[in-house]
Write a structure and sequence with these properties.
The chain is mainly α. It has helices at about 1-10, 15-45, 50-80, 90, 100-105, 110-125, 145-175, 180-185, 190-195, 205-210, 220-230, 235-250, 260-275, 280-290, 300-330, 355-380, 390-410; strands spanning about 85, 135-140, 200, 335. The chain has a domain at about 155-410. It is built from 17 helices and 4 strands. Helix 11 (about 220-230) packs across helix 15 and helix 15 (about 300-330) packs parallel to helix 17. The termini are far apart. It is found in: Membrane. It is a multi-pass membrane protein. It comes from Olea europaea subsp. europaea.
Length: about 425
């Protein structure tokens, strides 16, 4: 290996100038093309007065800039970090894979062993020189390990942006389906069926009838019912019409013509501006997971369960809010005139903070993106049957569940 390394690993002074020029030119062209594309997208959003989406694009640029700084720091400091030596007994604590698993892997023969040999050669060429530590000491992190961290961070930044954009697209598709309901509000049939002079009992209205029953007045059964209702009901026509009527009655003059569907679409863009970025708290959760990903602690299982728990909790809360609105209508009036009037209030939300729901969605999106990233990174670096995945089929199932559930549920209720 040492002799081969001397033959194949060459520095710039022994590399053809055309090879250096071609590689640099390709990197520069790709970088300039990406910058031009982002600039054109920003101009297009500005021309169409999409202020929220433009701010989201600026956050994506900032995230790419942070990624560039991380890459620069890792490249510049990799050899200095690798020269930090620690005792072997300390290095063998809190390992993501057991030492026995690594020994079994190294003793494996045949084609798979040949594949790992080629892999090792490639990594040595990528890493270059290794640090020299005294006896019973090893590097804090090898150059090879720093290179793997570099790839993991790159995967995470790219997939988080893609995952957030996919959620935005699915949310817009869901809202587009409400356009027909909005158009119905301008028809004569709608005005006749919702005549303000028409009186009805509150329990006869479709909104109250859909969200109340005998169990809604019992606290225990109230939340149990809301939990199971989320699996069978999204936003119905009666929900949309009632919320639209309540919004217009509070914020606009009676009889005003207002496109509530476009308002929701703009609100979705404002929410996307929030969830597309990576806050220090999210980066902190990334570091905490890397710290707790110890062999036997099942950190991967618990981390993949957190987004699912958040999804179910948020969906249950949103169903509970609609149900409480319906109950408030029945408590205020025995008879309702026209469409029942709902009154939105921050008190319906946890701690009176509606933004907390959006923050939880943001956290769940990031965690799901991270779980997908971590799965793909392990697949790329170590293969599916590595020690990181004791049962990789279960890991695939959990990853797919989280990937499918968040975009489908969030921004669609």
């Amino acid at each position: 290996m040492a002799g081969d390394k001397g033959e194949t690993s060459r520095e710039i002074d022994q590399t053809p100038t055309w090879a250096v020029a071609v590689v640099c030119a390709i990197i520069i062209i790709i970088s300039i093309a990406l910058e031009k594309v982002l600039h054109r997208v920003g101009t297009w959003l500005t021309d169409r007065r999409k202020k929220a989406l433009y701010e989201a694009l600026e956050k994506i640029k900032a995230e790419l800039m942070i990624l560039g700084f991380i890459s620069l720091i890792l490249v510049f400091s990799q050899y200095y970090i690798a020269e930090i030596c620690i005792p072997i007994r300390v290095a063998n604590t809190m390992l993501p894979c057991s030492l026995k698993a690594k020994e079994d892997k190294e003793n494996t023969k045949g084609d798979d062993g040949h594949r790992r040999l080629l892999w090792y050669e490639r990594r040595v060429l990528a890493g270059g020189k290794e640090a020299k530590c005294k006896e019973d000491h090893v590097s804090l992190i090898s150059v090879d390990g720093l290179h793997q961290i570099h790839i993991l961070v790159f995967f995470l930044a790219v997939l988080h942006v893609i995952y957030s954009a996919l959620t935005m697209v699915l949310g817009r598709l869901k809202i587009r389906g409400w356009k027909q309901w909005e158009e119905e509000t301008s028809s004569s049939d709608y005005e006749f069926s919702n005549d303000p002079s028409r009186f009805r009992l509150t329990h006869e209205t479709s909104f109250v009838r859909a969200h109340t029953s005998f169990w809604t007045r019992v606290p225990l059964f109230f939340y149990i019912g809301c939990f199971f209702r989320q699996f069978f009901r999204s936003v119905s026509k009666s929900d949309y019409m009632t919320l639209r009527h309540g919004f217009i009655s509070v914020h606009l003059a009676p009889g005003s013509k207002f496109n509530f569907q476009k308002y929701i679409k703009r609100s979705l863009e404002d929410d996307f501006k929030t969830v597309v970025g990576v806050s220090p708290v999210l980066w902190g959760s990334f570091v905490v997971f890397l710290l707790l990903n110890v062999n036997g602690w099942k950190a991967l299982f618990w981390a993949s369960s957190i987004p699912l728990i958040i999804i179910l909790a948020v969906d249950t809360k949103l169903q509970a809010i609609l149900t409480k609105m319906a109950l408030d209508i029945t408590e205020r009036h025995a008879v309702v005139q026209g469409i029942p009037l709902v009154k939105g209030s921050d008190e319906y939300f946890w701690f009176g903070r509606p933004q907390l729901v959006l923050q939880l969605i943001h956290f769940a999106l990031f965690q799901n993106a991270f779980q997908i990233t971590y799965f793909l990174w392990i697949w790329y670096e170590y293969s599916l049957n590595s020690c990181f995945h004791e049962n990789y089929k279960v890991v695939i199932a959990k990853t797919c569940l989280g990937y499918a559930s968040v975009p489908h549920r969030f921004f669609t209720r």
